[in-house]
Design a protein that fits this description.
By secondary structure, this protein is α/β, with parallel strands linked by helices. It has 13 helices and 17 strands. The chain has a domain at about 55-300: Aspartate Aminotransferase, domain 2. Helices cover about 40% and strands about 20% of the residues. α3 (about 55-65) packs antiparallel against α10 (about 285-300), α4 (about 80-90) runs parallel beside α10 (about 285-300) and α11 packs parallel to α13.
Length: about 400
């Protein structure tokens, strides 16, 4: 049955994803089941989406309750659930206003447009460049792809849009050299997820805040992957003691229900006036109910301190692996977002974990990315480490063959 479904999928669905050879049918907590009934420990977490785990009852019940009342009426009208979702985001961030959309790419598009519009309304034409980082990833639309600092995602889609300047990540000198009259914003991930789990230096982030303020350049932090507790704080910027001007959110915002948002300061958000930007489904009642349930669960169940505690537990275990196995080159990350840089083919190792019933993935060719839910238990982390011992042990035995 599973093979039949996979064959149909290959015939009927665009071949844009490299998929694991299973059909997932249900999930609960940190676990997924395939069509044959096999259980897998999910340390991909829907690619940092299901931060509360699969089928969290609070989110499910919130969506069902809203579904029975109203699914959609459009943004031609106000809806109370959207107001509540905006209120909880603003109460727990630096921002004053929210714009709702459907995805991370759409959130980054909105932030790009906001930065350009703010600059246009204040300074006129010509001040539209946005500094972004090498190895960054901001989405798959043409604008967000143009902002992305990785060539592999752009191949075959050129020409990219003008208006983006890519500079080395964690380089103060590069930012200082490129900030000029034509720049309206800096767009940065504090942990580059698709770029290999590269973490921004503390002093670098402080510098970004200072230089953007000095030049009236908007500091946009892409929190699509790092937001909603992933780093042990509600938002990654909180780890650096700064306030950005705008953040972009999606992925875990609705714990699996598609939604996105930008949160920003009044000074900048006022550049969006009536008719300047829109999103048909953005912040509709169903999406807003998912956002509200997700955030309330994070706070009510104390998942931020739990993520910090489990993050430290994972870090200690990862460092032991690094000490024991020379195939492990580096450990990078924060909270519950970690990269294990390995010698050799990371995809091959991902397959070995999969065969053992553990789901992880690989970025940049040799960085194993682990993204467990905020609800992960020590015994589940221990199971991952027991598997890692076997997988890395297999490669350690032939380390001389690995380039």
């Amino acid at each position: 049955m599973q093979d039949e479904v996979i064959l149909k999928a290959k015939n009927l669905i665009a071949n844009t994803y490299k998929r694991f050879p299973i059909v997932v049918t249900r999930g609960e907590g940190c676990w997924l089941w395939d069509l044959n009934g096999r259980r897998y420990l999910d340390f991909i977490c829907g690619i940092a989406v299901c931060n509360l785990g699969h089928t969290n009852r609070n989110v499910v019940n919130g969506i069902i309750a809203q579904l029975e009342k109203l699914t959609h009426a459009s943004n031609l009208f106000y809806n109370e659930t959207q107001v509540k979702a905006a209120e909880i985001l603003i109460q727990n961030s630096f921002g004053n206003k929210v714009f709702f959309c459907n995805s991370g790419a759409e959130a980054n598009e909105a932030a790009i447009k906001l930065a350009r519009r703010y600059s246009y309304k204040k300074y006129g034409m010509g001040r539209f460049y946005i500094l972004t980082m090498e190895n960054s990833f901001h989405g798959r639309t043409i604008a967000t792809l143009s902002a992305t600092g990785q060539k592999k995602f752009k191949e075959g889609f050129e020409p990219m849009l003008d208006g983006f300047i890519h500079v080395p990540f964690n380089s103060k000198e590069a930012i200082e050299a490129k900030i000029k009259d034509g720049v309206c914003a800096v767009l940065v991930e504090l942990i580059q997820g698709e770029g290999g789990i590269n973490v921004a230096d503390y002093e670098y982030v402080k510098f970004l805040r200072e230089i953007t303020e000095a030049n009236d350049v908007i500091l946009i932090i892409d929190e699509v992957q790092t937001g909603l507790g992933r780093t042990g704080k509600l938002f990654a910027y909180e780890n650096y003691g700064i306030e950005p001007d705008v953040i972009t959110l999606a992925k875990a915002l609705g714990n699996g229900f598609p939604c996105g948002a930008i949160v920003g300061k009044d000074k900048y958000m006022e550049a969006f006036d009536v008719g300047s930007h829109a999103s048909t489904f953005g912040g509709n009642p169903l999406a807003s109910s998912a956002i509200l349930a997700t955030l309330n669960t994070i706070f009510d169940e104390g998942l931020l301190p739990r993520a910090q505690k489990m993050g430290e537990y994972i870090y200690q275990g990862l460092m032991k692996l690094k000490e024991k196995f020379s195939v492990v080159k580096d450990i990078r990350g924060m909270g519950l977002m970690w990269g294990i840089e390995v010698k050799g083919d990371g995809e091959e190792m991902v397959h070995d974990f999969f065969e053992e019933g553990i789901l992880i993935n690989c970025t940049r060719g040799n960085v194993l990315r682990i993204l467990p839910p905020l609800i992960v238990k020590e015994e589940e982390v221990d199971l991952f480490f027991e598997t890692a011992e076997r997988v890395f042990g297999k490669y350690e035995s032939r380390i001389g063959e690995i380039k």
